[in-house]
Amino acid sequence: MLTRIMKHEWRSLVADRTLWIIAPLFALLIGYGVYNGSSWVSFQNSTLDAAQQEERDRFAKAKAEVASIEQGGQPASAFANPRLPSVAAGRTAPRYATLPPAPLAALSVGQSDLYPYYFKVSSQSKQTFTNNDEIENPTNLLAGRFDLAFVIIYLYPLLILALSYNLLSIEREQGTLQMMMSQPVGLRTFVTGKIGLRALVVLALAVGFSLVGFLFGGVSFAGGAWLRLLLWVGIVAGYGAFWFALAVAVNAFGKSSATNAMALAGLWLVFVLLIPSLLNVAVTTIYPVPSRVEMVQATRRASAEATAKGSQLLSKYLEDHPELTAGKQADPADFVTRSLAIQSETERLMQPVIDHFDRQVLGQQVLVNRFRFVSPAIVTQAALNDIAGTSAARYRHFLSLVDEFHQRWRAHFTPRIVQKALLNASDYDRFPSFSFGEEPTGVIAKRVLAGLLGLLIPALGIGWLSLRALRHYQLAG
């Protein structure tokens, strides 16, 4: 009987002009979203390629100059001699630490247009290369980009509600519900068949059009992308299940089609717009992040204080790091070595400010993660960002690798700077290099599956209660 109901529902949907209007529009929106996402990924890849090419050209120029100096030539400037470790570490040979787009990055831009995805790591303090200026239009950054995740989170529920708001009410208003119930079929079976067929159609549209968009958008399916794609399908299905269950619940109250439409539109506004906005306000109020102006002022104060104690700091720095001198007598008047001591003290003074900033940001993320289940839109956005590799978790992982590389870079050059060693061309080939390693797939899958459960459990609960409520449904209005 369930199969016959679904076949009849399919014929009804095919005959209904609503599906033929919505489906092409939905396909167009998905295509545009994938195109936008792919364009952003292409821009990122082009930028990273340009950065790597700039690094290769800079290294080649420095090595050629070093070779020329070794043969008796003179450096272009006494303060830019590429044979000096301090010059190489800070000016001629900094390396790029890059965050490459994940295979499905075109799926969801997330906040990847806000987060820096490459740093030019030098021997300077980390704040000098991580606090980049944002040249993008702030209005564009605030609004975000129209990508596939935007279509899924905001427009996909509207498609579901447009096909389900009058699931039972239209039958009752047309007088066909009583006739249908005179057949040997229960109301709950009838509703299950109708909603099941519509769910299959909508999911097929969402997944099918998305796959076509992926193929034409040049999305890469390498590097475990198939598992990510399966997780994406699961999240889309779970998000759709929630909205279908909500549509059944509203229909179970036995109101008119117009009332159902208004109620579901209101619920869409609450779950997709209102709750996320209120949670954002609450998070930023409870864990306010210091402004960039405060960070800059704190850095200046720390730098001025450390500079004023330059000679004292140098003595203490060399006492704390006797391995740097390798038994040689350090020159207290040496500007470069004194700069290392001042820089170390500046970072020490700045650390409480940085720790406070990190705690506030982490507090915001923990709070959002804890209360994300109050809105299916928040759960879905977080899961899609994880799948696409544009989540805050992946960016934090990248920052930890950058910090580790920065420490390795300094450890490589600091002894050479203090000992006033001179570099040759072959030394440039032995400088540390950065390599990004992805988070384990299992860690990502665990976070996504938690979100999937956060969608399916409410959907199943609402659906079960709604089907039970249908026992009291009035067949005639």
Describe this structure as you would to a colleague.
The chain is 70% helix and 2% strand. It has 477 residues and is an all-alpha fold. It has one domain (1-295, 356-409, 431-477). It has a two-stranded antiparallel sheet with strand order 1-2. α6 (148-164) packs parallel to α10 (225-251), α9 (187-217) packs antiparallel against α10 and α12 runs antiparallel to α14 (335-371). The longest helix is centred in the first third of the chain and has 54 residues, at 17-70.
The number of helical elements comes to: 17
Number of DSSP strand runs? 2
* Count of discrete domains: 1
Biggest sheet descriptor: 2 strands, antiparallel
User: If you compute it from the alpha carbons, what radius of gyration comes out, rounded to the nearest whole angstrom?
Assistant: 30 Å
Give the integer mean of the pLDDT values: 83
What order do the strands of the largest sheet run in, or round the barrel if closed?
1-2
Envelope shape: elongated
The amount of helix comes to: over 70%
Class by helix and strand content? mainly alpha
Strand content: under 5%
Low-confidence stretches: 133-143
Assembly category: single chain
Q: Helices and strands, in N-to-C order?
A: HHHEEHHHHHHHHHHHHHH
Distance between the termini: 26 Å
Explain briefly what this protein structure is.
With 477 residues, this protein is an all-alpha fold. 70% of the residues lie in helices and 2% in strands. The chain is built from 17 helices and 2 strands.
Give me the secondary-structure topology.
Elements: H1 2-15, H2 17-70, H3 85-92, E1 95-98, E2 118-121, H4 126-130, H5 138-143, H6 148-164, H7 169-173, H8 177-181, H9 187-217, H10 225-251, H11 257-286, H12 292-308, H13 310-320, H14 335-371, H15 376-388, H16 392-418, H17 441-469
Antiparallel strand pairs: 1-2
